[in-house]
Amino acid sequence: MKYNKLFRILALAIILSLLMLAIPATPALAQTILLSPTSGTVGTTVTVTGTGFTAYTGQSVYILFDYAFMVSASVTGGTFSTSFTVPSSATAGQAIVTVRTLPEPDQGSLIAQASFTVTARTITLSPSTGYVGDTVIISGTGFAANSPITFYFDSVIVTAVTSTTNANGSFPNTTFTIPSTSRGGHTIEARDASLNSATATFAVANKITVSPTSGAVGDTVTINGTGFAASSPITFYFDDVSVGTATYTNLNGSFTNNTFTIPSTSRGSHTIKAQDASGNYAIATFTVAHKITITPTSGVSGISVTVSGTGFGANRPITIKYNNNLVTTTPASITTDANGSFSASFTVLASIAGTYKVDATDGTNTASANFVSTTDATISQTTSEAAPGYVGMPLTITGTGFKPNATVTVTYTSDPVTLATVPTDANGNFSVKVTIPPSAGGSHAITVTDGYTTKQFTFVMESTAPAIPPPLLPMMGVKAKSKAYFDWEDVTKDVKGADERSTPVTYTLQIATDADFKTILLKKEGLTTSAYTLTDAEKLKSTKKEAPYYWRLRAVDAASNASDWTGAGTFYVGFIFPEIKGGLLYGLIGAGALLLFFLGFWVGRRGGGYEY
Predict the structure, then answer these.
(1) Does the reported pTM lie above 0.90?
(2) Residues of the chain with pLDDT > 70: what percent?
């Protein structure tokens, strides 16, 4: 019994000891806080949940972040829940979230604590390497919440790009274009309104672009380059063969609009390389295609055309066609060289004017070019206002490229006068001589046509008037016969041409009853000689000297050029005996003879002293 009692006392003592140890530890195990999330960037919203706060029911507790007061919460039924935002002053690393009975970091009772990991402020680039002009996507975290973000490239603000963080201090997927700059690493910085910033590096590589990317030998290509060393000479290569230094880069390591001529080479893909003095280089691909050029690109049938080809198969035979017809070439056999190039000529086949295709083929590759077949006509002598032509002027008209074996008609003036017709030969060529007919002074058209093609020349007829013909008879104021005779000096008109000659001149005569020639009695045109006698039908009536007739004349050439009129001459016509014909005429003659006989007898008697 004694030992049992002792054991009971010992067990009670142990139990009391254990209770003494358990009572002080109970609050620490019961009062806990949970954080959600347990890590994040500046601006992250953190929810704090407390349990086991029975002793503080009906009271307020205070939450501190790294000993800076954030928010308070009321305890209900031993629990509470509240949220706060990670402040912009937070630095990356571990932070302590504390629950106290007072908001000051060093006052009140410390009830519970938990750790929160502050994530670093960062930006990410996608991609992080590339070329000038590339678009980069920038995303950032750890910045101030709802803050505008300013971007910098190598410390230079980029005004065209802006963004704003969300409530968590993040901004997603902001696009950014790499500006013109030299090769190497460059810093991109994002900075919020609180001057919090983060940087990332973008590696710029050198690059060239060619335009166009395909073509033929001899084509001009434009090359632009970026990302090279600054202010460096650039050497160009075609298929690793240097073609010389053509330009320098600017301060940003760029060059623009440098032209490059594709050298003679074979068909297919080739490389163009640009390299700076530091050995940085970039390559672009250019595809060479086959091509032909023709010289000339237009002309008449029968002329020689040269065909040059590049980019064909190496050492391949070439066939040339004109308008789908095989042609004879010089040389007769054409073969490309090792670069797929050739040159040959052919004579344009006879054809009417139009556009025709020239084809060259190596059996696999065919290239074409257009030849414009034209018609041409020439005249042996051109005329102008300063150097006009004349009536009777001989001209030679030559034509090429007209319709083969056709008839060409040559006409003159707007009211056509046919000057000649002539056949063309098998190549559409012809030559014909024509003479200019009488026509008025001024411009006229000479038209040449085969019914399909028409050519026209301008012929300028001379318009110089001939001299005024000097009048001779009748003289001023004299009496004239009723069938008056008019006379004047000849007028000649010389024209100069390939054969100096005189052009025909005619005369116009007018007779009037007044000095102003308002009442014209007679008008004679086209007189070919310098004299004229009035006919019986044109004889004039007798008139007084005080009321004379008036006459004048002028010269007119074959081009209808007329001289001025002469001054008005005057004459009158005396009494006119009636005309006696037949038996009456003979009777009067006999009476006159008898009268003369008696008159002579009487005069003889008186002379002999006879008296009656």
Answers:
(1) no
(2) 87
